[in-house]
Design goal:
Layout: E1 4-8, E2 13-17, E3 20-24, H1 29-41, E4 50-53, E5 59-63, E6 68-69, H2 76-79, H3 81-98, E7 119-121, E8 130-133, E9 136-140, E10 147-149, H4 151-162, H5 177-191, H6 195-221, H7 225-232, H8 235-249
Antiparallel strand pairs: 1-2, 2-3, 3-5, 4-5, 6-8, 7-10, 8-9
Helix pairs in contact: 3-4, 3-5, 4-6, 6-7, 6-8
């Protein structure tokens, strides 16, 4: 068909056919489809409409959401305060809607549930999984890493990517510490984090990055091509450097 486009992300190769996206299915895809249906039924439009699995079960089918995807802080649509505020509100809306998800005993998640299981975490709510329109975040995509967990576990990673909280050796994307602290507070305001959650956010972000590194290295050791490439390119070292920098400079 003419209206067809191959979209290559950091891990998966997906195909858009008109208004439909075909994604490789995993053992968790049925649970993710139920989650997306729950969110849309709850009135949350910041996720794609689910269309089930292909006849052979090899592909997950979801709605294509038009817009632009911001890949990192260098993208103009990511750098503004308005974008940061919208990202915090989008994540809060997703979490609030997910609280009504009817968890079942046979649910499958790629990432293990993390206590306290307050909401369903996206697991990778970063700039590269966010759809932008008119320079603002409007939707989240790619729910392979969704799993039950605390709000702060998800919010800390989104803050890491959107503020961003990158150490100074990442010279193209880092921010002076006072500016990073200002934007971090703005994100916390937009999401509505409590004072207790704000106090825990830096340590949570650092822990989140270390857990990510352990996952990447485990997947690379098992021969996963995308994660093997990420480790070879030094993504794991990047995250560990950022985790230490966050702990050293954002404890207050």
């Amino acid at each position: 068909m003419e209206d067809r486009e191959v979209l290559v992300g950091g891990v998966n190769r997906v195909v858009r056919e008109g208004g439909l996206v075909r994604r490789p299915a995993g053992p968790w895809s049925g649970t993710v489809q139920r989650l997306l249906a729950c969110l849309r039924t709850a009135g949350f439009t910041g996720v794609p409409q689910p269309y089930g699995l292909s006849d052979d079960g090899a592909e997950e089918l979801v709605e294509y959401l038009p817009g632009e995807v911001g890949h990192d802080f260098a993208a103009p649509e990511v750098r503004s305060d308005a974008s940061l505020v919208a990202a915090g509100r989008l994540l809060r809306g997703f979490h609030d809607a997910s609280a009504g998800f009817d968890r079942q005993g046979d649910d499958v998640w790629q990432f293990p549930a993390r206590e306290p299981t307050e909401v369903i975490c996206h697991g990778d709510a970063a700039t590269y999984n966010t759809v932008f329109r008119d320079q603002l975040p409007v939707a989240l995509i790619d729910f392979d890493t969704a799993h039950p967990g605390p709000r702060l576990w998800d919010a800390a990673y989104t803050a890491y990517r959107f503020v961003p909280l990158y150490a100074p050796d990442e010279v193209e994307h880092t921010l002076p510490i006072p500016e990073a602290k200002r934007r971090l507070a703005l994100f916390a305001d937009s999401y509505g984090l409590s004072q207790e959650e704000r106090a825990q956010l830096p340590a949570t972000a650092a822990e989140r990055l270390r857990v990510l590194v352990a996952w990447m290295r485990q997947q690379a050791a098992a021969g996963h091509p995308a994660f093997s490439r990420h480790v070879a390119e030094g993504h794991d070292r990047r995250y560990l450097t950022d985790a230490q920098w966050i702990e050293s400079n954002f404890a207050d």
